[in-house]
Design brief:
The protein is an alpha+beta fold. The protein contains two helices and four strands; from the N terminus they run βαββαβ.
Length: about 90
């Protein structure tokens, strides 16, 4: 398995319960893809330079993941179609 770093942006006006559901959903998704979730960090809210899906402020989350190479494409596709996720970035850790 390879280590990856995943950063997500969600609308800043989502409440704490919705954020917790997002974290749980991500953990279930990664485990369903035979991966492991490491450290999870909520990076806080930040003002965006331009509107994304009509949103001016976003909350950022960061996960350390271990995934098989074949699961990366599937995870990327699922995050792309998820309506809660404004943007995501999945990169290989050194």
């Amino acid at each position: 398995m390879t280590k990856y770093d995943l950063t997500l942006m969600v609308a800043a006006d989502t409440d704490a319960e919705a954020r917790k559901k997002l974290e749980d959903k991500m953990e279930k998704l990664v485990k369903a893809l035979d991966g492991k979730v490491g450290k999870t960090v909520e990076m806080g809210k930040k003002q965006l330079a331009y509107k994304i899906k009509g949103v001016r402020e976003a909350a950022f989350f960061n996960w350390s993941l271990e995934l098989p190479a074949a699961a990366v494409v599937q995870l990327d596709k699922k995050l792309t179609v998820d309506r809660e996720v404004l943007r995501h970035l999945l990169v290989l850790e050194d």
